[in-house]
Write a structure and sequence with these properties.
This protein is mostly helical and 166 residues long. The chain has one domain (3-162). The protein has helices at 3-30, 33-37, 43-75, 81-100, 129-148, 151-162, and strands spanning 107-109, 121-123. The protein has a two-stranded antiparallel ribbon with strand order 1-2. Helix 1 (3-30) runs antiparallel to helix 5 (129-148) and helix 4 runs antiparallel to helix 5.
Length: 166
């Protein structure tokens, strides 16, 4: 991929991840298990919100680390295309994958809804409004990142292997 494209993709990826961080961080700082479960203290609700909070914390950390790496990359006097491609690969596999394939499977993407204009995210348990809103809010960011970084899902590592690199 030409270095000008990689640099602009690096900049837009950093901007989008910063946006995701700015949404996730206040939600996680202001919501604990007690606020989310409210009066619903069922085991199902407890397990759902514990898993959701855990997945969102992991996503926040992966996103913050990636924002830092991309920032360092963009501040360097000479843009390192190879390192940028490596970081974009990591963003795809750590951030985008962490969002769409959460460890605790509190939500999942149902591709059948992607073409209807409806939200493609389906929850395992009906969440409270602010939990639903945060997941659906950042889903748009991660959908865009997935589309933009699709090359790094598979082709990047295939290209590196063919060049004899790891």
């Amino acid at each position: 991929m030409p270095s000008a494209n990689v640099k602009s993709l690096t900049e837009s990826t950093r901007t989008k991840l910063k946006d995701a961080v700015s949404q996730l961080e206040p939600f996680l700082n202001n919501n604990a298990l007690v606020q989310l479960t409210g009066e619903d203290n069922s085991e199902e609700a407890q397990a759902f919100y514990k898993g959701l909070l855990s997945d969102l914390r992991h996503l926040l950390v992966f996103s913050e680390v990636s924002v830092e790496k991309l920032g360092v990359l963009l501040r360097r006097p000479n843009f390192d295309t190879d390192y940028a491609e490596r970081v974009l690969y990591e963003v795809y596999h750590h951030c985008v994958s962490a969002f769409f394939y959460p460890k605790n499977e509190c939500y999942s993407e149902d591709g059948r809804y992607a073409y209807t204009g409806q939200d493609a995210i389906r929850f395992r348990y009906k969440p409270v409004r602010n939990a639903r809103d945060i997941v659906l809010g950042v889903s748009k960011i991660f959908e865009e990142l997935r589309d933009e970084l699709a090359y790094y899902e598979n082709d990047y590592m295939t290209q590196r292997r063919m060049q004899g690199q790891k």
